[in-house]
Design a protein that fits this description.
By secondary structure, the chain is α/β, with parallel strands linked by helices. The chain is built from 17 helices and 23 strands. Bound molecules: 2-acetamido-2-deoxy-beta-D-glucopyranose (NAG).
């Protein structure tokens, strides 16, 4: 701790000294410094986990919060409030069902197919408390693709929401053939091959499970599998380690969020934005979140006023839908201060401000499986992130020339890529290293290798190919330009 604090102070002093002259003519100086200090502070905490092999995971943080602030509202869903203690106990109950039956053991991977509802979170946490890893299945994935997901992450157990069981009717026999056991969140089921969970949860104890079961010794251990769907081919299972989930959970906090915030989550929990940044971020701050079954443009502002929402999560389309709603009286009357998400177009961004007031829109760039993240902590319209000299020391990324016609990066005579000049558009590559590892996709070395670029600037180096064309302007703002190839968020 001592060591890292000294390092932080030293670095801050360095930042200060180097910029002291520039600062008068550099409007973002203090915001940059505050942001950077936060990034470094959080990074130092993760370094300590590495050194001591004692990882405080998101679930550990949740259990800590449930002890510290048991009666604080953690989750609001369809008008019902669940405290930290409520969710903690219910996730214990779920874990105890499997513990008593002995059907799951530490290290098993379990697939979860549920729409947004409180039990999504209770099942997720309960399984992690057993030491299992959890695969979030996209509820739009059907039959054959769904079976493929089980092969990717090696799951032999599926937990399915009560409202989704019927959609599985046609593949229940295939599950049986592959000896995958199916558990439904129901009291009773007409399918003989499906086991029921709710009735068993009613009988089970809510006492805490042994902490040793969920203990993690490495930041690089997989805790979740999140599927990224492509425009072609089968879904890919991105391996989410504790490292990534801890980084994502720091998002709101890095943007200045606190325990007093109320976070609105209208995105599906099976994506990383809602689960890792939204739920994880709420836990990290000890705040409250409002979960929506589905986004509704007509309910959005009423919800925000009713629950005193201060932060909301978005994707570009959400803001566009909100702008397309008919104008109403008092649209600027709400407590929302910040939106966190990605894909907000400049014109929508401006219109959103005009209609709903000066809400700070915080673009967050980073793919589920990627090893790089940008944050636009200034809130400048049109930028996905912001860089500077020190950020580049922490995160090694490069923009390289890209040939749009041949659809590949430009290589010189020696076969190496070339940096673009400031302001020019290039393909964003992120260096893979011990501090920025890439964990790839579960069950497919080939897919993992496809996202890598080797021998980029020197022989033997390796970069994560984001597939995104970006430009960095004279003020160090990073702007998204285009997406190339078969790459997805
Ligand atoms: C399941 O059964 C329990 C107890 O018998 C009851 O309290 C609960 O409401 C039932 N749940 C559903 C979804 O039917």
């Amino acid at each position: 701790m001592f060591f890292s604090l000294g390092w932080v102070t030293g670095l801050v002093a360095g930042v200060f000294a180097l910029h002291v002259v520039q600062k008068l003519c550099f409007p973002y100086f203090w915001k940059d410094v505050f942001y950077l200090v936060k990034v470094i502070r959080y990074g130092a905490r993760l370094e300590i986990f590495k050194i001591t092999s004692k990882v405080v995971t998101i679930i550990d943080r949740f259990v800590q919060q449930a002890e510290r602030i048991p009666t604080k509202p953690f989750l609001i869903y369809e008008g019902i409030t669940y405290t930290y203690q409520d969710i903690d106990k219910r996730s214990n109950t779920l874990a105890n069902v499997f513990l008593e039956q002995g059907t799951l053991k530490k290290g098993d991977s379990v697939a979860l197919l549920m729409n947004n509802e409180p039990d999504f979170i209770c099942v997720w946490f309960g399984l992690i408390k057993l030491g299992c890893s959890v695969a979030f299945l996209n509820t739009n994935i059907k039959s054959r693709s769904l079976l493929h997901c089980f092969n990717c992450c090696g799951a032999k157990t599926l937990i399915v929401g009560a409202d989704l069981l019927d959609s599985l009717e046609d593949i229940l026999p295939s599950f049986q053939e592959d000896s995958i056991s199916v558990w439904a969140m129901k009291n009773k089921s007409s399918h003989t091959e499906v086991q029921t969970l709710l009735d068993k949860m009613h009988q089970a104890s809510d006492k805490p499970t042994p902490p040793a079961l969920r203990a993690a010794t490495s930041l690089k251990a997989a805790t979740l599998y999140i599927f990224t769907s492509g425009t072609t081919g089968l879904p890919k299972a991105a391996v989410i380690t504790h490292l990534q989930s801890l980084k994502a959970a720091a998002g709101f906090w890095a943007y200045g969020g606190s325990k007093d915030d109320v976070v609105y989550i209208p995105l599906p929990l099976y994506h990383s934005a809602a689960s890792l940044i939204g739920v994880g971020g709420t836990i990290e701050m000890g705040a409250t979140c409002v979960l929506k079954k589905k986004f509704s443009a007509s309910q959005f502002w009423n919800d925000c006023r009713k629950y005193d929402v201060t932060i909301f999560q978005y994707i570009g389309e959400i803001c566009r839908y909100l702008c397309n709603q008919p104008k109403a009286e008092g649209e600027k009357k709400h407590k929302v201060q910040m939106g966190v998400g990605n894909g907000l177009r400049q014109d929508v961004w401006r219109e959103f401000h005009r209609r709903f007031g000066e809400i700070r829109m915080c673009e967050l760039y980073g793919s589920t499986e990627g090893n790089l993240c940008f944050m636009n902590h200034i809130g400048k319209i049109g930028a996905v992130g912001r860089s500077n000299f020190f950020y580049k020391l922490l995160f090694k990324y490069d923009l390289v020339r890209y040939d749009m016609v041949r659809d590949e990066p430009v290589r010189n005579r020696q076969g190496f890529c070339q940096h673009v000049n400031k302001g020019e558009t290039g393909l964003l590559l992120s260096k893979i290293s011990a501090s920025s590892p890439f964990f790839g996709y579960a069950g497919s070395k080939q897919l993992t290798e496809k996202k890598l670029m080797r021998n980029v600037f020197v022989k033997g180096d390796a970069y994560f190919n984001t597939g995104d064309l970006m430009a960095e302007d004279a003020e160090d703002f990073i702007c998204f330009k285009d997406r190339v190839g078969d790459t997805f968020r």
